[in-house]
């Protein structure tokens, strides 16, 4: 099914008799997802409003991420966060997965850039929340609740978001000698400085990676200061290539299951010590992506955060969600989708 | 306000005895002392609560809430009581749970760029606790000396610097929350991201209706090397508004863009003598960084501003000059208070609509015959029109309120919203339909149904009373039957 309007979508959902799988570009279904009847959102396309002078964009959910990014770039703007971009990804899928990328440590996650949503709930009711202004405390913030909800509460139809100016200059420094555990102290030191680091990751081979962006004079002075600050951690080089696209999109497909671990950077060394070498690390050590043999569960030390299997056969989250959170989530899903129409999302 | 629950009032002695058992030396029931809690900073509305409890720990909050839940007693959470929307104002049948005693710093982790505090702690003292390590907590409501982190989370408070750093929700990583039935739950994660639905996101800004937040994990940021403001004066509000949009469009991101119009400038000059130029509108724009970075940003801002023919472009050359540039802005509300009574509105509009909205406010002001002064966070479109009136003239307050409602409607029509930072509380409860349809409000109330099925927690706020009346009645029946 491929509705072309919000009203048509609402009617389809009202009439639905079995679970639907809300699908944007189908570039990111997690283990277990996509079992229902396919509800293709790409018919809901196009820009409703773009006001560069207010840093505001309102766009329909099925619009491709690539076309949104192109339109913004033409005006010298960008999304403040850095979603994974695969051919076909839609902006609705980006927000439904809260895909956020390296710049999250500086400008926040996708959810932080989302100002308003329109969606259709499991009753086929059209609901709007938030708006198009940065500051809005009128009623509950369902915008945040919908971001990252992976279609469990409703199908997003329109999103209003805050854009950001493209920084005129950018510089990436690397400390190639550092392994993942060794990189954490360097990344933490950089992020604790007032140098306004906008990317702090690690890739095998490339080592620790740090990005500084802004006006060109400022980028030069800050890069020099950062080099000095990190000299005790090993040799610091300026990198010619751009590793951030790779950090943003995640590892290539490969053998085994991909795991995504969110943790405190200070707990990352203990986690890394208990696991095979990661495929990448971001957010100063707060995000670790690694591969385990298919079906295997890692043995993790106690930490604040969670680990999720993002590719493979069966869904898995560690530690298991606590029962109170699970009860609240079940309650919300029951009220937004009493017939379980969006259960096809898993 | 809704009528107090007579069953609860009749059981006052029993309720107080049960509370004393739950939290032995934390209960206040002497009417002379509970009066202190009869209102918040929206002091036009007052009502003393049935009792006040000042717990010392999450566990104590939990036992007290479980007790109230069992007895079907409404509860109103309270931080410092600085809400401007009546958010922490009680009803006669309610128990106020004040977090003032819970003000400890639990953990400072510079390597993770976070701090964990009890939520009775004041906003400013969070920064005081971490600045020795070179960090600060970004959200900076003007009330930051007094207001508590719990209130900030409930109201999703913002401040002058949120153009760059966002509001509370963007700087909140996790909370410990006690639900109305006493259940304790942790939400969020080290990057703010929990494993599934973003429950933290909806708790922030829910005006204390989903649970009592006892602990918060807050994102802290490294303090920038320095900051410098400029003052730009214009001969019309419209030009100043257009200049704001052009600066944002140009790609520099100042940390703050504040706006003051003629009436406001005149009042603050008379009050604090900051030495502002004689003009119709002015902007205070602040940028941050090291000295060369500041120079680079201000160069760009100067170029944009020059194209609007400003009367003056005053770049601070010293600490003292910076202080004086901010002096008038910081004393604006006090200065306006000396002119007479005023209502302070809190609508938000898209920045691009500033010129039109300012012009329309002028027209409305003439039509009602009441002066309106404007001082606000222009960078993010959060306006605080101040409506001047004389409380001693019969009928003037009503007229001022009617004008206020018209201005807020104007904000919504322009694509903005009813409240940008103060919250809905009881103040704007009945205007909610201006911005949201019944289905939209119904969706929000479903969240309340899940977290607080008995509708006992701060339930007289946020939603138009007639909309929530029926579900409250049904819910309360359930609670009374269960007890
Ligand atoms: C190899 C690989 C690695 C990746 N790594 C990461 C990563 O580490 N972190 C990350 O955040 N992202 C990651 N992605 C992300 C993914 O590319 C983006 O999230 C993408 O933009 C999803 O868009 P889509 O339109 O393809 O969504 P889909 O794949 O079609 O859908 C993704 C989810 O969103 C829901 N959904 C889609 N559209 C809507 C809508 N309109 N309303 C409600 N729900 C909707 C779906 O039901 C589903 O649950 C990765 C992708 C790949 C292929
Ligand atoms: C002079 C002045 C200037 C102001 N400037 C600003 C400004 O610039 N920006 C801004 O955003 N606001 C501003 N405010 C409004 C007010 O300070 C904020 O809303 C503040 O966050 C309220 O905090 P509080 O601790 O005083 O909360 P209270 O007034 O005690 O409570 C506010 C709301 O939060 C709930 N609540 C309190 N604590 C908790 C808790 N622990 N758990 C759950 N719910 C809780 C209450 O029930 C109530 O609904 C200003 C107020 C004044 C008086």
Describe the structure.
The complex is a heterodimer of chains A (346) and B (483). Chain A contains eleven helices and 17 strands. In chain A, strands 3, 4, 5, 6, 7 and 8 form a six-stranded antiparallel β-sheet that branches. In chain A, strand 16 and strand 17 form a beta hairpin. Chain A is globular, with a radius of gyration of 21 Å. Chain B is globular and about 70 Å long. The relative contact order of chain B is 0.11. Classes of the chains: A alpha+beta (346), B alpha+beta (483). At the A-B interface, strand 7, helix 6, helix 8 and helix 11 of A face strand 9, helix 8, helix 9, helix 11 and helix 17 of B.
Shape of chain B: globular
Helix content of chain B: 25-40%
Query: What integer is the average pLDDT of chain B?
Result: 94
List the ions, cofactors and other small molecules found in this model: flavin-adenine dinucleotide
Kindly report how far apart the N and C termini of chain A lie: 18 Å
Annotation, overall tally of beta strands of chain A: 17
**Pairing-aware structural class of the strands and helices of chain A?**
alpha+beta
Strand line-up of the largest beta sheet of chain B: 15-12-14-13-18-20-16
| Most extensive interface | A-B, 80 and 97 residues
Low-confidence stretches of chain A: none
Short description:
With 346 residues, chain A is α+β, with helices and mostly antiparallel strands.
Q: Helices and strands in order, then pairings?
A:
The complex is a heterodimer of chains A (346) and B (483).
Chain A: H1 6-15, E1 20-23, E2 37-40, E3 47-51, E4 56-60, H2 65-74, E5 77-79, H3 91-97, H4 104-107, H5 110-113, E6 114-121, E7 126-130, H6 142-146, E8 154-165, E9 169-175, H7 180-191, E10 197-203, E11 207-214, H8 216-230, E12 237-239, H9 244-249, E13 257-262, H10 268-273, E14 280-282, E15 287-292, E16 306-309, E17 317-318, H11 323-336
Parallel strand pairs in A: 1-2
Antiparallel strand pairs in A: 3-4, 4-8, 5-8, 6-7, 6-8, 9-11, 9-12, 10-11, 13-15, 13-16, 14-15, 16-17
Chain B: H1 6-10, H2 12-22, E1 27-28, H3 31-34, E2 51-53, H4 58-71, E3 75-78, E4 95-98, E5 105-109, E6 114-118, H5 123-130, E7 135-136, H6 149-155, H7 162-165, E8 172-178, E9 184-188, H8 199-203, E10 212-219, E11 221-222, E12 227-234, H9 237-250, E13 256-261, H10 262-272, E14 281-288, H11 291-306, E15 312-315, H12 319-330, H13 332-339, E16 341-344, E17 347-348, H14 354-368, E18 372-377, E19 382-383, E20 385-389, H15 396-413, H16 432-435, H17 438-451, H18 465-482
Parallel strand pairs in B: 2-4, 3-4
Antiparallel strand pairs in B: 1-2, 5-6, 6-10, 7-11, 8-9, 8-10, 12-14, 12-15, 13-14, 13-18, 16-20, 17-19, 18-20
Helix pairs in contact in B: 2-4, 9-11, 9-14, 10-13, 14-15
The complex binds flavin-adenine dinucleotide (2 copies).
